[in-house]
Amino acid sequence: MPHRYFTTDISGGTAVLSGADAHHLAHVMRARPGETVTLCDGKGTDYACAVRSFGPDTVELEILSSVSSVSEPGVRVTLYVGYPKQDKLETIVQKAVELGAVRVVPFFSRYCVAAPKKEEQKNLRYNRIAFEAAKQSGRGRIPQVREMMDLRPALEEMAARPGAM
Predict the structure, then answer these.
(1) Is 115 helix (H, G, I), strand (E, B) or coil?
(2) For 35-94, what is each residue's pLDDT tens digit?
(3) Is the pLDDT of residue 117 over 80?
(4) H/E element holding 12?
(5) Rounded CA gap, 165 and 160, in Å?
(6) What are the two backbone dihedrals, phi and then psi, of residue 22, each rounded to the nearest 5 degrees?
(7) Residue 104 near residue 126 (C-beta atoms within 8 A)
(8) If we measure between CA atoms, which residue out of 5, 28, 27 comes closest to residue 16?
(9) Closest Cα to residue 105, out of 128, 137, 82?
């Protein structure tokens, strides 16, 4: 199975991989021109690509074909989760993404033992965990982890969504 990477830099018949993924493909996997990889646009489309060339921080790929991602579940699940103790939310996010959730929404209520701290910074980490879990499990979309919200707005949001509850 070819390796999977996410990028949004796709135009015409060319895609560009940059950052940590480009480094991984070029230096860790030691890819060579002509080798095939799978790129995902994060919106549910997979692209079969061949490595064309390497730049200092980029890998240019030729798109061979595209297909809708078959790894995405047919049911769109949003997980609303009460804020847990310690770093357990990281594990919850990882496992929810691996199981097919499209969104994770942590909420705080009076029954939560831990109080959220530095949530903006932590949210960046949770979204990075979701990104890595999506890559690991072969997902075609990158699930979103929302910022912490209070219980009442979370309940209102759930009630407004069709099929929720």
Answers:
(1) coil
(2) 999 999 888 889 999 999 999 899 999 999 999 888 888 888 999 999 998 889 999 999
(3) no
(4) none
(5) 10
(6) -65, -45
(7) yes
(8) 5
(9) 82
Residues 6+ apart with CB under 8 A from 53: 33, 59, 60
Spatial neighbors of 70 by CB under 8 A, at least 6 apart, are 46, 140
- Alpha carbons 25 and 98: distance in angstroms, whole number: 23
30, two tokens: 């030691």
The DSSP string of 20-76 is HHHHIIIIIS---TT-EEEEE-BBSEEEEEEEEEE-SSEEEEEEEEEEE-SSS-SS-
How many residues make up the chain in this entry?
Answer: 165
Percentage of the residues of the chain whose pLDDT score is greater than 70: 96
The amino acid at residue 31 is A
Q: Residue 58 in 3-state DSSP? A: strand
Dig out the tokens for 118 from the structure.
Answer: 């530095």
Residue 118 one-letter amino acid: K
DSSP character at residue 25:
I
Cα 100 to chain centroid distance, Å, stands at 11
Strands 77-82, 36-40: pairing kind:
unpaired
Mean of pLDDT over the chain: 89
Residue 1 has pLDDT above 80, yes or no: no
Pairing mode, strands 36-40 and 45-54: antiparallel
